[in-house]
Amino acid sequence: MESHDTSTVRARPEPLRAVPVRHPGRWVAVAVLAVLVAMFVHLLVTNDAFNWSFMVDKMFRPPIIEGLLRGTVLMTVSAMLIGVTLGVVVAVMRLSDNPILRGVAWLYTWFFRAVPRLVLLAVFGNIGILWSRIEFGVPFDTQLGQLFGIDNLQLRLFGFSSRDILTGFMAGLLGLALSEAAYMAEIVRAGIQSVDEGQTEAAQALGMSRGQLLRRVVLPQAMRVIIPPTGNETIAMLKDTSLLLYVPVSVELFFQLDAVGKRTFQIFPMYVAACLWYLFLTSILLVGQYFLERHFGKGYGPAGRARLRLRGMTAETGGGGNSGTVGPA
């Protein structure tokens, strides 16, 4: 018998046809959005209530620009500087081993986070009712004099009339800054607690004091966590300056725009002008926040961690020649 070798040849499979997944819902959403955008643009162009020529003519007048610079911008910068500084102090008190400091810091954050800013500004706007004069010197001097039999003892160095020092701008600044400090305290506390405890132990082993540890080790690393919410708080502070209308603070952007609208009976165009001004200022702050986050975020994220690993490998191999290259064997 002859045996025939039969070789079986496997048929080559046909190439797969990749059929893209269809998303009809996306196109429906795009069509709906396009119609809504077209309707909004049509409203802006055709509705006479906007009165664009009147708005553009009034929103750049000197009182408006003065309110923008001296009121909104100056108040935002001043309130944030005081709020951030005081917030760091309160955050350190919250993390202190002293129970009295922790309790005082907790009470501070509890009160100023619980009271709405509008109510707080209304209170500070009328705080001059409590004192006709604000004086500095030995506290309880009159009571001490009565205790020792001295009538009308005055141990006060100097003082001011409450009307002179508690102006509308100062009352608004105190209300916004003290309220902001409570929120910044929680942000800073979260940032400090995000730093690994090993960093603190290593710094203490090197003999650093608590102040040096905070300035040189903890805060620089905590900035990566602190910066994003601080940027958001700054933007919120910029918008909350419009609440100064109720103190009132006359040298302020929204106060001036509102006054022009009521004087000319063109309230709506002036409110739209206020929206445009706040959009412009917020956009500038968003750009600054982006670059700050990128600066303090160096070394973090996938790309940053990869660069740090590569530097570590280069340092371990001496950093020279082909020994420092990373690649397949």
UniProtKB/TrEMBL annotation:
It comes from the Bacteria. Its main location: membrane. InterPro entries: ArtM/GltK/GlnP/TcyL/YhdX-like, MetI-like, MetI-like_sf. It is found in: Cell membrane; Membrane. SUPFAM superfamilies: MetI-like. Keywords: Amino-acid transport, Membrane, Transmembrane, Transmembrane helix, Transport. Gene3D superfamilies: MetI-like. Pfam families: BPD_transp_1 (PF00528). This is ABC transporter permease. It comes from Micromonospora wenchangensis.
